[in-house]
Write a structure and sequence with these properties.
This protein is mainly α. The protein has helices at residues 4-10, 21-60, 90-117, 129-148, 154-179; strands at residues 65-70, 73-78. A two-stranded antiparallel sheet has the order 1-2.
Length: 196
Amino acid sequence: MTNPIIRGFCNLTRFSGRDRRSQFWPYAGVAVALTFVVMGAAMLWAMSSFWAEAMRVAETHPEVVTVESGPGYYSREVDVSGYGLMPDLTAFFAVMGVSIVMYVALLAAAVSRRLHDLGKSALWGLMPVPFLIFGVVFFPIMMTGMMEAAEPNPALFFLLFFNNLAYMVGLISLIVMLCLRGTVGPNRFGPDPLQN
């Protein structure tokens, strides 16, 4: 199969074997873009009820609407802070969690095969995952606490901040590895994919 994108989608559950950079990156780019498109559409849906309620407040209380315009721009701001209107972030965070699961599921096997091409265990691909899970679990807790409490929890904020730094270091390290040239010829994970 010569099309790397179709090949990637057909091999979502094949964790064995090897993939060269030319087989991995086109598929990875499409998988990431697809995840962001789905996540963006789902986020719009998740927040639509809040926006509809904010527009209802703006229509019934025009004094909360501030309009600014000038050459090339138009802005309308609705201040609903005095109306007890808070977005229900449950759907937002559910969509975010499902999107991250989709992201990991689409890339897990391809990352494994790419790491195998480097002669490395697929376990290297798990480097950013614990930090991602920690962030997905504790970010909603922090946001809910900030919206409900007068005093935010600074310890949780800084813990998430350093967790995100560790996640970025792990993710960047993994991306650098995935960019490296693979083993020429066979290795312990199989024959050279370009010689098949």
